[in-house]
């Protein structure tokens, strides 16, 4: 089982607090699924889309962008947001590696 941590915990938790209860529950379930198996059929590599070696998974109209460290068995949640805005925000905040 993988450990979960947040790149910018304060901002991510603040973002999640704004979401409706239903979405919060779905995000929590997605976190639990990621801990068990971070690479599922629902996850997609973001490397071509945002020029950054990471993964995304869908939670309704929201996306979770994350990175996997296989050696340490860790999942780093990079960003969570509405699908309309998350990729632009990601490109603005995280330049290519």
Walk me through what this model shows.
With about 100 residues, the chain is an alpha+beta fold. The protein has one domain (about 5-90): YaeB-like fold (2-Layer Sandwich), CATH 3.30.2310.20. Helices cover about 40% and strands about 30% of the residues. A hairpin with a 2-residue loop joins strand 3 (about 55-60) and strand 4. The protein is globular and about 35 Å long. The model has no long low-confidence stretch (mean pLDDT about 85).
Keywords:
five-stranded mixed sheet; 97 residues; YaeB-like fold; alpha+beta
Give a brief description:
By secondary structure, this protein is of the alpha+beta class.
Write the layout of secondary structure elements.
Layout: E1 3-6, H1 9-17, H2 21-36, E2 44-45, H3 47-50, E3 55-59, E4 62-69, E5 74-82, H4 86-93
Parallel strand pairs: 1-5
Antiparallel strand pairs: 2-3, 3-4, 4-5
